[in-house]
Amino acid sequence: MRNIALDKAKNILAKRRNDALLRCEKVQEKLAENSDWAVCQKNIRVARLNLGLALGTEREKQLRKPLEELLVKESQLLAKYGYTKGDLEPKFYCTTCCDTGFVNGGKCNCLKAELTKILFEESAIDQTGKGERFIQNAGFFGVRYWDSFCQSRKYSRLFACISQAVLRSSPANGRYYKRKQ
After folding, report:
1. Which among 136, 143, 175 is positioned nearest to 160, based on CA atoms?
2. Which of 39, 90, 156, 157 is most buried when burial is the number of CB atoms within 10 A of its CB?
């Protein structure tokens, strides 16, 4: 069950990432249709290449000015076509992992949050935190069914713990239940 939920969470993040990349790609394709944009981008690439080759030399200062002018022209063209510099970059839902779900070899908080959300939805615990829908949907947790089974101390304590956990559940804090201190 957890692996299925993890796969669902990964799919959600992959879709988010793909959507962000597609939005960015569409903007770039629309801009590329304009010849003045294409020429400007080509000139910027050439100017950056020349500047990179001239780093640490006397020509470096001379090559910076044309590049700065081209970048200003790029901003003007973006405004002319109704875009901003930010529209050229993907806007990921999670800036920590760029919607991959993993950061530094571990799970990112966004993946953990999606996994928790999916597991919570599959548990059928309602959003108000009262647990009534859970008890109705999972009839074996109903009091009538367990009354005869819970005659022994061992099982009555287990049922009490489960009932309290369900009734104290709260999706708002991301936990299934809170223990009272």
Report:
1. 143
2. 90
Whether 21 contacts 88, CB under 8 Å: no
Within its chain, how far is the Cα of 164 from the centroid? Answer: 32
pLDDT at 172: 45
Q: How far apart are CA 174 and CA 113, in angstroms?
A: 8
Are 69 and 96 contacting, i.e. CB atoms less than 8 angstroms apart?
no
Read off the tokens for 127.
């959003």
For residues 35 and 41, the answer to whether their CB atoms sit within 8 Å is no
Q: How far apart are CA 145 and CA 53, in angstroms?
A: 79
Please give the Cα distance from 125 to 7 (Å, whole number). 21
Task: Give the span between the Cα atoms of 112 and 91, in whole angstroms.
Answer: 20
Choose among 122, 144, 141: nearest CA to 132: 141
**Tens digits of residue pLDDT in 34-76:** 899 999 999 999 999 988 888 888 888 888 899 999 999 999 9
Distance CA 77, CA 92 (A): 25
**Over the stretch 72-81, which tens digit does the pLDDT of each residue have?**
999 999 999 9
